[in-house]
């Protein structure tokens, strides 16, 4: 039986990715995003920026830009700290790094690392961390159905979130459908197809022009229409505003299908297949 004792987690349609945002400029970017209207900020132990993310959030709260309870801050435990004791210690370390914000709202397993085969015991560590009040909600990232089913079978607790690679060149439609069927919220990392030319694709350009939107807004609107929370990264205020405004763009079913079709025969950008990939 799945754990249903926690209040359901509701995420906004668009959040802020923070990969490679560090130091004072990283903190400023987070504060700027919150001022613009973002209420979801994504980080990870391996990004080496939990401290600046927390500082940026704390600064925004102190300045009255948003109440702390309105903001969902996320981090993730890396494979090199998998195992029950090591995993729990990693969560404690994340909490220490993010001390200015108090309890971490959402904490994820970063990858399943199937060859290492420690994701179940590390999931137990996240359950323990939630019970101890170190984090409010727990989930996974890059997990396939077989990984999620094993977590539920061996612990009785389903993840609340599964953060996965998804963009027009790799829609990951089947995984999204699985997540939805299990009541798991899907987040998309690299939602704009990082290091690809999808923003200049003629189909995306045509859809964007129809709505007087930018190509990035058209793609983010596509994610929103599929019920996926996108977390694009941007440190520039103008781009942050542009990305967030994508929630006002309403695509037709035909437009959604045309963008999805760009992924026919598509592939993961870095070839990181969760069935085999080991993240340390």
Quote the distance from N terminus to C terminus.
Answer: 31 Å
The rough form would be described as globular
**What fraction of residues sit in β-strands?**
5-15%
Mean pLDDT across the residues is 96
Fraction of residues in helix: 25-40%
Radius of gyration: 18 Å
Residue runs with pLDDT of under 50 for 5 or more positions: 1-5
The SS-based structural class is alpha/beta
Give the strand order, joined by hyphens, for the main sheet.
1-2-3-4-5-6-7-8
Pattern of helices and strands: EHEHEHEHEHEHEHHEHH
The count of strands amounts to 8
List descriptors.
globular, 10 helices, 280 residues, alpha/beta
How do the strands and helices of this protein lay out in sequence?
Elements: E1 16-17, H1 23-36, E2 40-42, H2 50-62, E3 72-77, H3 84-97, E4 104-109, H4 119-131, E5 135-141, H5 145-155, E6 161-165, H6 173-181, E7 185-189, H7 202-210, H8 215-225, E8 229-230, H9 237-244, H10 253-261
Helix pairs in contact: 1-2, 1-9, 3-4, 4-5, 7-8
What does this structure look like?
This protein has 280 residues and is an alpha/beta fold. Helix content is 40%, strand content 13%. The chain is built from 10 helices and 8 strands. The protein has helices at 23-36, 50-62, 84-97, 119-131, 145-155, 173-181, 202-210, 215-225, 237-244, 253-261, and strands at residues 16-17, 40-42, 72-77, 104-109, 135-141, 161-165, 185-189, 229-230. An 8-stranded parallel β-sheet has the order 1-2-3-4-5-6-7-8. Strand 5 (135-141), helix 5 (145-155) and strand 6 form a beta-alpha-beta unit. Helix 1 (23-36) crosses helix 2 (50-62), helix 4 packs across helix 5 and helix 7 (202-210) crosses helix 8. The longest helix is centred in the N-terminal third of the chain and has 14 residues, at 23-36. It is globular, with a radius of gyration of 18 Å. The model is unreliable at 1-5 (pLDDT under 50).
């Amino acid at each position: 039986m799945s754990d249903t004792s926690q209040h359901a987690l509701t995420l906004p349609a668009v959040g802020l990715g923070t990969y490679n945002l560090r130091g004072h400029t990283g903190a400023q970017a987070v504060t700027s995003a919150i001022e613009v209207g973002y209420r979801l900020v994504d980080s990870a132990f391996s990004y080496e920026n939990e401290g600046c993310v927390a500082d940026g959030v704390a600064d925004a709260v102190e300045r009255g830009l948003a109440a702390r309870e309105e903001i969902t801050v996320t981090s993730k435990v890396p494979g090199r700290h998998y195992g029950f004791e090591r995993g729990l210690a990693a969560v404690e370390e994340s909490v220490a790094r993010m001390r200015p914000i108090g309890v971490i709202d959402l904490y994820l397993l970063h990858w399943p690392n199937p060859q290492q085969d420690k994701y179940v015991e590390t999931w137990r560590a996240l359950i323990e961390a939630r019970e101890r009040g170190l984090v409010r909600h727990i989930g996974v990232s890059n997990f396939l159905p077989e990984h999620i089913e094993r977590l539920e079978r061996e612990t009785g607790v389903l993840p609340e979130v599964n953060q996965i690679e998804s963009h027009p060149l790799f829609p990951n439609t089947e995984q999204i459908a699985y997540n939805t069927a299990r009541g798991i919220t899907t987040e998309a990392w690299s939602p704009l197809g990082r290091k690809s030319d999808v923003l200049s694709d003629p189909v995306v350009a045509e859809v964007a022009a129809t709505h007087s939107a930018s190509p990035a807004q058209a793609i983010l609107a596509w994610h929103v229409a599929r019920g996926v929370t996108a977390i694009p990264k941007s440190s520039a205020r103008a781009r942050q505003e542009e990305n967030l405004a994508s929630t006002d763009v309403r695509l037709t079913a035909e437009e959604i299908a045309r963008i999805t079709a760009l992924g026919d025969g598509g592939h993961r950008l870095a070839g990181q297949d969760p069935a085999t990939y080991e993240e340390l």
